[in-house]
């Protein structure tokens, strides 16, 4: 990886945008599980863990959260200039995450349901980080997965390309000898599994707990979305159900937004993300 | 942190306290205060965490996905949001869950309270009192303390994962019950590892009690659920030390929210005027007699008495709660005889609210559901949104008593006070 001195620990800054802070909280969680990986990082800025202000340069920026205010865009661009490596850290940074559900509805209507005076709130549509800057690596998932985190950090420290999977969750699910939830249970919400089109790397943690994959890691490479939609429809799910499933965590990805629109017959009128 | 003294002719010495981004809390907030001799000239507690509009975008979504979505309000207390939403929705649609489901949800919630308290105490709150800016130096300089912390955290996380599927953002709890019942053997093993950290938990209470925690008296109104025969977790009477004692359905008759121009969190008030405190201290102040005998004994040993009116001691209350959580979970698991069951229900229209005790205090969720299971209205008030007004009140009370100190010390005292509340700013602007 360009420019990082592998003899030293990687100077790392953690930045939070619009999200639940669960992914940076995961770093605190990993403390006992992955000490040797965390030791590779020198956190020069990590507000949830230390008081220290940012006063020295850093190599690695972990970006948590979606972009949802005008100030975010400026800050993100400044970070991009400074960081040698920029990682979209978690589902919100990678795809907008749960807060981006707002993008499928009329902006002011959503805001007015929450605040008596929405004009006092500085807020724009929620966007993933790569809407505005180049992203070097994606660490997907809600929350991030510790094994994938380990792979990424060790690779960055060693200056090599991390092995981030592009195949579907189904592969990992089969490797764990799970019975297919999608085939097993008919018409129950709990069988509405997005595993066939969702990118692996989570070790199929939901399906291994008898829970359908809800696509928090976003689309795999080259997914067959129309077939996924046909399967759901064949199992008796309504267009509404299908739209909901595709827009829960990664609806802003081009692939999942196509799935959300497919059988609903409705164009998402307030959705203005540019096509890839 | 900027240090500025304004000295102008005829004016007393003014000190400016400015924290742009409060560290070691969840989310983003700051304070600005201008104090002169024993007088607060200006004070703003600014939660600038970007608004996320959950109550707005949940409208139009389906009943079966709400608990997963709202669990993403918070990375530290997802289980609380999940169980509260599930209970509100089940109540709204007339779905009754089994006793086993209720017990499993109670253990799951308490495992999360434990993990949250342990991490808050050791990683976020304690470094201040040991004169460190983070926990990192503690790792090498006090390895015994750090190892104790890891043992406790691992045991608590393990219990969450056994029931919930993983420690962060659990997924087995669904509308009507669970997708899978945890294997009894694993649950018993998890209870055994809890029993092994009991001494660590008692030691934690002593450790926190011996820290140089400031003396500060602030007689707050404390609001929490009140248990009848068990320490309140997922249900109970909505009660306050000012005399409120009503069912959770009457929440909106007594609690109001208002929007302020300088903060993204709405401020809650009781009966339209008073600020109040929620959280571990509020719970213990109202439910001390329902703590386990060991939790009561250790409270007595360290000299903690209720009612306690030092908000900094919310941290000690959390430590005492960890002991109670361990006793509660282990005795519940010992009595448990799990059997397989699958949720089954019919959805109908309705509206209802539910209140639970999240790690940081009172959590309210309310929903209106159409006959097709579509959410028509969502109303959520989180513990930190409940506390925000009271934090500002306490700062107003604290600042005049410490205004003679130097700016760095004043700043530190303010930070410690806010951190003692264990705020979650992400939650507060859900």
Q: What does this protein look like?
A:
- The complex is a heterodimer of chains A (276) and B (430).
- Helices cover 33% and strands 9% of the residues of chain A.
- Chain A has 276 residues and is an alpha/beta fold.
- Chain A has a five-stranded parallel β-sheet.
- Chain B has 430 residues and is of the alpha+beta class.
- Chain B has helices spanning 54-57, 66-71, 78-92, 99-129, 136-141, 143-164, 184-196, 198-209, 251-254, 280-287, 293-301, 314-335, 383-402, 407-420, 425-428, and strands spanning 4-6, 14-19, 30-36, 39-46, 173-174, 177-178, 223-226, 237-240, 245-246, 255-258, 267-270, 350-358, 361-369, 375-381.
- In chain B, strand 3 and strand 4 form a beta hairpin.
- In chain B, helix 7 (184-196) runs antiparallel to helix 12 and helix 10 (280-287) packs across helix 12.
Helicity level of chain B, as a percent range? 40-55%
Order of helices and strands of chain A: EHHEEHEHHEHHHHHH
The dominant shape of chain B is globular
**Tally of alpha and pi helices of chain A:** 11
Overall strand count of chain A: 5
What is this structure's SSE topology?
The complex is a heterodimer of chains A (276) and B (430).
Chain A: E1 10-16, H1 22-29, H2 35-38, E2 41-46, E3 60-64, H3 70-82, E4 85-89, H4 91-95, H5 107-114, E5 137-139, H6 146-158, H7 169-175, H8 181-184, H9 225-234, H10 239-247, H11 254-262
Parallel strand pairs in A: 1-2, 1-3, 3-4, 4-5
Helix pairs in contact in A: 9-11, 10-11
Chain B: E1 4-6, E2 14-19, E3 30-36, E4 39-46, H1 54-57, H2 66-71, H3 78-92, H4 99-129, H5 136-141, H6 143-164, E5 173-174, E6 177-178, H7 184-196, H8 198-209, E7 223-226, E8 237-240, E9 245-246, H9 251-254, E10 255-258, E11 267-270, H10 280-287, H11 293-301, H12 314-335, E12 350-358, E13 361-369, E14 375-381, H13 383-402, H14 407-420, H15 425-428
Antiparallel strand pairs in B: 1-2, 2-3, 3-4, 5-6, 7-8, 8-9, 10-11, 12-13, 13-14
Helix pairs in contact in B: 3-4, 4-6, 4-12, 6-7, 7-12, 8-12, 10-12, 11-12, 13-14
């Amino acid at each position: 990886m360009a420019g990082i001195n592998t003899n030293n620990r990687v100077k790392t800054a953690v930045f939070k945008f619009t999200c639940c802070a669960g992914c940076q909280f995961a770093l605190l969680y990993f403390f006992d599980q992955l000490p040797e990986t965390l030791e590779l990082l020198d956190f020069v800025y990590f507000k949830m863990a230390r008081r220290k202000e940012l006063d020295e340069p850093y190599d690695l920026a972990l970006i948590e959260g979606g972009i949802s205010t005008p100030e975010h865009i400026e800050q993100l661009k400044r970070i991009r200039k400074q960081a040698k490596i920029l990682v979209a850290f978690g589902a919100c940074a990678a795809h907008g995450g749960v807060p981006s559900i707002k993008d499928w509805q009329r902006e002011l209507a959503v805001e007015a349901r929450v605040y008596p005076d929405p004009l006092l709130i500085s807020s724009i549509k929620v966007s993933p980080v790569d809407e505005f800057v180049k992203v070097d690596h994606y660490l997907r998932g809600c929350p991030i997965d510790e094994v994938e985190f380990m792979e990424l950090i060790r690779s960055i420290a060693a200056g090599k390309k991390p092995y981030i999977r592009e195949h579907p969750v189904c592969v990992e699910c089969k490797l764990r000898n799970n019975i297919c939830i999608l085939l097993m249970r008919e018409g129950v919400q709990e069988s509405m599994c997005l595993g066939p089109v969702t990118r692996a790397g989570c070790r199929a943690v939901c399906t291994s707990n008898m829970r359908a994959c809800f696509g928090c890691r976003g689309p795999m490479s080259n997914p067959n979305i129309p077939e996924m939609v046909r399967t759901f429809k064949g199992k008796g799910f309504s267009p509404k159900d299908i739209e909901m499933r595709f827009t829960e965590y990664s609806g802003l990805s081009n692939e999942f937004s196509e799935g959300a629109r497919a059988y609903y017959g409705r164009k998402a009128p307030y959705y203005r993300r540019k096509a890839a | 942190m900027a240090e500025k003294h304004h000295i102008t002719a005829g004016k007393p010495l003014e000190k400016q306290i400015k924290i742009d981004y409060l560290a070691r809390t969840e989310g983003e907030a700051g304070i600005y205060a201008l104090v002169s001799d024993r007088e607060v000239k200006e004070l703003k507690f600014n939660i600038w965490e970007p608004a996320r509009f959950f109550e707005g975008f949940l409208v139009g979504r389906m009943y079966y996905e709400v608990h997963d979505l709202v669990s993403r309000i918070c990375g530290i207390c997802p289980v609380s949001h999940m169980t509260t939403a599930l209970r509100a929705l089940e109540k709204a649609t007339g779905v009754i869950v089994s006793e086993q489901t209720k017990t499993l949800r109670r253990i799951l919630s308490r495992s999360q309270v434990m993990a949250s308290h342990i991490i808050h105490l050791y990683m976020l709150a304690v470094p201040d009192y040991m004169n460190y800016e983070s926990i990192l130096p503690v790792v090498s300089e006090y390895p015994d303390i750090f190892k104790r912390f890891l043992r406790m955290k691992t045991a608590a996380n393990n219990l969450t994962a056994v029931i919930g599927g993983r420690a962060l953002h659990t997924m087995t709890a669904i509308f009507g019950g669970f997708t899978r019942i945890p294997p009894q053997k694993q649950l018993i093993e998890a209870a055994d590892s809890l029993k092994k950290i009991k001494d660590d938990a008692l030691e934690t209470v002593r450790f926190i009690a011996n820290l140089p925690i400031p003396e500060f008296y602030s007689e707050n109104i404390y609001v929490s659920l009140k248990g009848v025969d068990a320490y309140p977790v997922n249900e109970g009477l909505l009660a306050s030390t000012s005399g409120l004692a009503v069912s959770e359905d009457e929440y909106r008759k007594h609690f109001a929210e208002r929007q302020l121009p300088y903060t993204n969190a709405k401020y809650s008030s009781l009966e339209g005027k008073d600020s109040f405190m929620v959280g571990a201290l509020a719970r213990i102040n109202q439910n001390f007699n329902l703590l386990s005998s060991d939790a009561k004994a250790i409270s007595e040993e360290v000299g903690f008495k209720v009612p306690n009116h030092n908000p900094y001691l919310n941290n000690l209350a959390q430590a005492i709660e960890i002991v109670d959580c361990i006793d509660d979970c282990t005795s519940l698991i010992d009595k448990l005889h799990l059997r397989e069951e699958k949720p089954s229900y019919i959805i109908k229209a309705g509206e209802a609210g539910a209140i639970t005790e999240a790690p940081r205090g009172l959590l309210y969720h309310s929903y209106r559901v159409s006959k097709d299971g579509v959410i028509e209205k969502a109303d959520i008030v989180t513990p930190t949104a409940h506390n925000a007004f009271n934090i500002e009140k306490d700062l107003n009370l604290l600042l005049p008593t410490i205004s003679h100190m130097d700016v760095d010390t004043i700043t530190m005292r303010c930070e410690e006070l806010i951190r003692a509340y264990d705020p979650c700013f992400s939650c507060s602007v859900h």
